[in-house]
């Protein structure tokens, strides 16, 4: 994939070639026609206006896509590779832990990355989270970095212009439109006080933390925006790790000679926080009222899911050396932890593992969301299959994922369909927490290669890390990871962060040799982003694909909000049906949707924009 996908100067040549092959007007040659195929852009604010509430929208044909009469571009061919384009894209971010020899616990934990289309131009921008120097050891300034997508394969650092050049010991981020104004806002988690930045619609953000009441001081980790009470406003869940401060730091050593980073067992846990959106720009801390107060928790990851398909969002929270939690939404503003009964709290040995990043998806096309979870070295990853009865079974051992990941320490992990064959694959980003681990465990490395597990169907996976180019297998001290289609060519690219190291942008080349459909949701009665909307795509051959619009997942990170559905091998004239069940309960059904498009669906109105996706590089 590259920005050359959008080189329109190639299109007249393609038309000429087709005309010559057809033998039409050979003497006259092909007539140059103006391009009618626009790039994928957001609908105007008028398109975002609320529609009258209704309980259902009847099936309707897709409106004619601009350029639909033009000859469809050819899919690429060749092997799929992830190409490191960090330097040529202008990404020059390096994470600063502030480490100076004291081995403070937060140093080894960060940091994350979020994709956000902050200016609504239809191109995903990149937000990278940074930490900072410790008091008394100042060597320079460290800020988060917002990179604007220039739509040509490059990015521009606009952190200062955007008002985000603020020092903090940042760890993670979450993106969502909490005020339903059509522009996504940013929440950054930290060691200390967190920050909420409201999008001002002009490329700038304002720090509204104090007014909103969401500073939530402590040792925060991952966060998610979600509408837990289905009132049309995004609420905020913030995971917390442990009670730590410079004054309460502990001394730990692997070799009994030098200080090492301590494990969480040396510290007390810290309860996560739930903030209810009051709709006036402020939030109320309802953690205890909702039944979520748990000071024993040491949470690092959180995934949104509706595991029982009852239309209300639940939370899976991964804990480090404490039991994992599955919080069932009781529909009355409260949650009940059913992690033990569901089989998610402990590992196979009946003990708590060191849960890190996590994600939820329907990886087997069953209609039920399952879970993937990163764990510590010698604990292996978990792949919890949802059988639809409220029970989950760890299929990592049977699929081979457990054996392959046993020596890895997995932080960021998520489902995504990198080859667009319709089966969600798994990425796991790895890296140890102890830079001196090889002193006591020579076979365990600090920097570790990621794992890419290709979904073969039938509950079977194959590791293909070394088969997708030289960039992905490179060992890094991996932490955060997220995916997005940064060049709008239909397949999913990656950003991977490294602890105290550079972030990397990996472009997916040739993943779009298969057909696909990309879907963006705009809520009206539901929250504006459509968080929690369930999208089902059905093909002519009966294949059923299901995904949910969500925030969070991975580790300290968030992928793009638009959904990508892989539709398999290219077929001329392929169409699918799309059904969206919104958090409000409203259902939109749309028939005869052409493949290889980016469509925007507004609740109660159907498709409001549809743009073809070009493939040629």
Describe it.
With 617 residues, this protein is mainly β. It has 6 helices and 37 strands. The strands form 8 sheets. Strands 7, 8, 9, 10, 11, 12, 13 and 14 form an 8-stranded antiparallel sheet that branches. A 5-stranded mixed sheet has the order 1-35-34-31-32, with no helix packed on it. Strands 2-29-28-27 form a 4-stranded antiparallel sheet. A hairpin with a 2-residue loop joins strand 8 and strand 9 (195-199). The protein is globular, with a radius of gyration of 24 Å. The N and C termini lie close together (6 Å). The model is unreliable at 1-70 (pLDDT under 50).
Give structural attributes.
617 residues, mainly beta, eight-stranded antiparallel β-sheet, five-stranded mixed β-sheet, 6 helices, 6% helix, globular, disordered N terminus
Short description:
This protein has 617 residues and is mainly β. The longest helix has 13 residues, at 10-22.
Low-confidence spans: pLDDT under 50, at least 5 residues? Answer: 1-70
**Can you count the beta strands?**
37
Overall pLDDT level: 90
The residue fraction in helices comes out at under 10%
Largest sheet: 8 strands, antiparallel
Radius of gyration: 24 Å
Number of helices: 6
Beta-strand percentage?
Answer: 25-35%
What is the rounded distance between the termini?
A: 6 Å
Structural class: mainly beta
Given the C-alpha coordinates, what overall shape results?
globular
